[in-house]
Amino acid sequence: MAEIDPFILQIFGPPPPGLDVFETKQKINYIIIAVSIVLAALAVLGRCVSRRISGANLGADDCVIMIAFILAVLSAAIGTMSVQSGGGIHIWALSRAKIMRGLKLGYVYAFAWSVTVSVTKISIILFYRRTFTVHNRTFKYWLHILAFLAVGQFIAVIISYCTLCMPLYLYWEQFSPNPPQGTCNDDGLILLVTSITNGVINIAILITPIPPILKLNMTNKKKAGVCAIMLLGCLVCVAAFVRIRYLVDYWKAIDKTWVSADTAAWSSIELSFGIISACLPVVPPIYLRLRDQYRTFSYSRKAQPINASDHSYFDSGSNVNRWADPPVSRIHGGSSWAMNRQLQRDDEIQLTSFVTTGSPPLDHLHPDAIYVHSEVKQSRAYV
């Protein structure tokens, strides 16, 4: 069994009685980081496929979330190297060289994590701006404030970490045989304050779309469904506050390298959930496409030939079909998704109600469509 570095014993004292200083949590950290990146990748892929299905070009919010995903991959790589340098291992089992390398990687990871969460927030704000027509000045200014807070959070991290120690390299050289003279601020406290601020901004962004959705002219059931899609962003809020709980432990702990495994794991989960939350409101076209294909298949197995003379959707006077397409393909095969492709390009969360003319047969009504019956009678002709 390897012996504890006397230098570590001198600084941190002996380990608590009964502690196995050579146990490790590294494997679980690797798994969490890998799974988080895979889930984020699937979310971004689903977003791109949805935009393809809806026939829309990629918007600014789509491009920004892709940048956020690239930054998340970079953060995961740095986090993995940080784990290899002692994260998830008791500090008494480490050498000074590993501790110093871990501090350097942790310093870089703080910047990578912060810029990733800020860019993710910017993508969500751009999505709100694209989805909701911004006529209300108050709502427009509120989006600007949120964007300012998201960028300001990253700037605050830059300032905090650039002034963390004087001189700066003292932060990772403090465990060297001849450390430089200087002072350092409490990095655990800085992380804690930054994370609390991040959690508050997450909540503000989460509730932002709720008021405009409630003002829409839709049924309460549809409003509830759209709000539920938007409130899936609470996942990232939960991850953010769980991370704060572990950061409190990190701030108070002597064995920081052991506790850092939990903070690193929840940092990866928060990055992943942030990207997933940004993508979930955009992916309904995938669900609608799969649902329509299933309904088309189910209906085609039991559909009977339609006699035009037996249905009211034909104008008996002019023999003109008021529906642009045959009823079956229009209602079941294409659905409202295909019928109104152009109108629905930027309506991933289904905020638009479509109105068309004619009267489909009652047994062919699409469950998600809104049908309006009206009659126009001409009482007098003017020539």
Low-pLDDT residue intervals, each spanning 5 or more residues: 306-346, 352-357, 366-383
Helix vs. strand class = mainly alpha
The overall strand count is 2
Spatial sequence of strands, sheet with the most strands? 1-2
The N- to C-terminal Cα distance equals 106 Å
**Share in β-strands:** under 5%
- Compute the number of structural domains: 2
SSE ordering: HHHHHEHEHHHHHHHH
Write the CATH architecture name of the largest domain.
Up-down Bundle
CATH class of the largest domain, named Mainly Alpha
CATH fold topology of the largest domain:
Rhopdopsin 7-helix transmembrane proteins
| Average pLDDT over all residues | 77
**Radius of gyration, in angstroms, nearest whole number:** 29 Å
Number of helices: 14
Shape category = elongated
The share of residues in helices is 55-70%
User: Describe the biggest sheet?
Assistant: 2 strands, antiparallel
